[in-house]
Specification:
By secondary structure, the protein is mostly helical. The protein has a single domain, classed as Arc Repressor Mutant, subunit A (Orthogonal Bundle), CATH 1.10.10.60. The protein is built from 7 helices and no strands. Helix 2 crosses helix 3 and helix 5 packs across helix 6.
Protein backbone atom coordinates (compact mmCIF):
# COMPACT_ATOMS: atom_id res chain seq x y z
CA UNK A 1 0.00 0.00 0.00
CA UNK A 2 2.79 2.45 0.77
CA UNK A 3 4.50 2.28 -2.61
CA UNK A 4 2.00 3.74 -5.01
CA UNK A 5 2.22 6.08 -7.96
CA UNK A 6 -1.16 7.55 -7.06
CA UNK A 7 -0.57 11.02 -5.62
CA UNK A 8 -3.81 10.96 -3.67
CA UNK A 9 -2.88 7.73 -1.89
CA UNK A 10 0.65 8.99 -1.31
CA UNK A 11 -0.84 12.04 0.44
CA UNK A 12 -3.25 9.84 2.41
CA UNK A 13 -0.38 7.55 3.46
CA UNK A 14 1.70 10.52 4.59
CA UNK A 15 -1.18 11.83 6.71
CA UNK A 16 -1.80 8.41 8.25
CA UNK A 17 1.93 8.10 9.00
CA UNK A 18 1.97 11.53 10.66
CA UNK A 19 -0.97 10.50 12.85
CA UNK A 20 0.07 6.92 13.50
CA UNK A 21 0.48 7.41 17.25
CA UNK A 22 -2.90 9.12 17.55
CA UNK A 23 -5.27 6.39 18.75
CA UNK A 24 -8.30 8.54 18.00
CA UNK A 25 -7.30 9.37 14.39
CA UNK A 26 -10.39 8.67 12.31
CA UNK A 27 -11.69 8.77 8.78
CA UNK A 28 -13.23 12.15 9.63
CA UNK A 29 -9.76 13.46 10.57
CA UNK A 30 -8.28 12.06 7.38
CA UNK A 31 -11.08 13.55 5.28
CA UNK A 32 -10.47 16.98 6.81
CA UNK A 33 -6.75 16.68 6.12
CA UNK A 34 -7.33 15.98 2.41
CA UNK A 35 -10.14 18.55 2.15
CA UNK A 36 -12.92 16.08 1.36
CA UNK A 37 -16.08 15.06 3.13
CA UNK A 38 -16.00 11.57 4.64
CA UNK A 39 -18.17 10.12 1.88
CA UNK A 40 -15.94 11.54 -0.86
CA UNK A 41 -12.89 10.17 0.94
CA UNK A 42 -14.52 6.76 1.26
CA UNK A 43 -15.47 6.68 -2.43
CA UNK A 44 -12.04 7.77 -3.60
CA UNK A 45 -10.16 5.26 -1.43
CA UNK A 46 -12.63 2.51 -2.34
CA UNK A 47 -12.15 3.24 -6.05
CA UNK A 48 -8.35 3.13 -5.72
CA UNK A 49 -7.94 0.22 -3.29
CA UNK A 50 -11.26 -1.61 -3.02
CA UNK A 51 -11.10 -0.96 0.75
CA UNK A 52 -13.23 1.33 2.87
CA UNK A 53 -11.39 4.35 4.28
CA UNK A 54 -11.48 2.87 7.79
CA UNK A 55 -10.17 -0.48 6.55
CA UNK A 56 -7.44 1.28 4.57
CA UNK A 57 -6.25 3.13 7.69
CA UNK A 58 -6.33 -0.09 9.70
CA UNK A 59 -4.47 -2.01 6.98
CA UNK A 60 -1.81 0.70 6.81
CA UNK A 61 -1.30 0.39 10.58
CA UNK A 62 -1.07 -3.40 10.38
CA UNK A 63 1.46 -3.28 7.54
CA UNK A 64 3.58 -0.86 9.57
CA UNK A 65 3.30 -3.19 12.58
CA UNK A 66 4.33 -6.15 10.42
CA UNK A 67 7.54 -4.35 9.45
CA UNK A 68 8.23 -3.35 13.06
CA UNK A 69 7.69 -6.90 14.30
CA UNK A 70 10.20 -8.13 11.71
CA UNK A 71 12.81 -5.45 12.28
CA UNK A 72 12.70 -4.35 15.92
CA UNK A 73 12.97 -6.05 19.29
CA UNK A 74 10.08 -3.92 20.62
CA UNK A 75 7.36 -5.77 22.47
CA UNK A 76 4.13 -6.52 20.65
CA UNK A 77 2.32 -4.23 23.08
CA UNK A 78 4.73 -1.36 22.36
CA UNK A 79 4.32 -1.90 18.63
CA UNK A 80 0.54 -1.94 18.95
CA UNK A 81 0.65 1.45 20.71
CA UNK A 82 3.18 2.78 18.20
CA UNK A 83 0.85 2.06 15.29
CA UNK A 84 -2.16 3.60 16.99
CA UNK A 85 -3.98 0.75 18.70
CA UNK A 86 -5.03 1.56 22.24
CA UNK A 87 -5.54 -2.05 23.32
CA UNK A 88 -2.93 -4.72 22.46
CA UNK A 89 -5.43 -7.64 22.48
CA UNK A 90 -7.51 -5.86 19.82
CA UNK A 91 -4.33 -5.25 17.81
CA UNK A 92 -3.52 -8.97 18.03
CA UNK A 93 -7.03 -9.87 16.90
CA UNK A 94 -6.79 -7.53 13.88
CA UNK A 95 -3.29 -8.77 13.05
CA UNK A 96 -4.41 -12.39 13.14
CA UNK A 97 -7.46 -11.62 10.99
CA UNK A 98 -5.21 -10.03 8.36
CA UNK A 99 -2.20 -12.35 8.44
CA UNK A 100 -3.57 -15.63 9.78
CA UNK A 101 -1.30 -15.78 12.83
CA UNK A 102 -0.98 -13.73 15.99
CA UNK A 103 1.91 -11.23 16.18
CA UNK A 104 3.98 -13.34 18.59
CA UNK A 105 3.81 -16.37 16.30
CA UNK A 106 4.57 -14.19 13.27
CA UNK A 107 7.69 -12.83 15.01
CA UNK A 108 8.87 -16.37 15.76
CA UNK A 109 8.23 -17.48 12.18
CA UNK A 110 9.97 -14.45 10.69
CA UNK A 111 12.95 -15.02 13.00
CA UNK A 112 13.07 -18.68 12.02
CA UNK A 113 12.27 -19.91 15.52
CA UNK A 114 10.19 -23.06 15.94
CA UNK A 115 7.83 -23.40 18.94
Amino acid sequence: MEHTSNQFLERVNAIIEQNLHNESFSTADLARAVFLCRMQLHRKIKRETNLSAARYINQYKLEKALRLIKTTPDTIADISYEVGFSWPPYFSKCFKASYGVCPVVFRKISAGINN
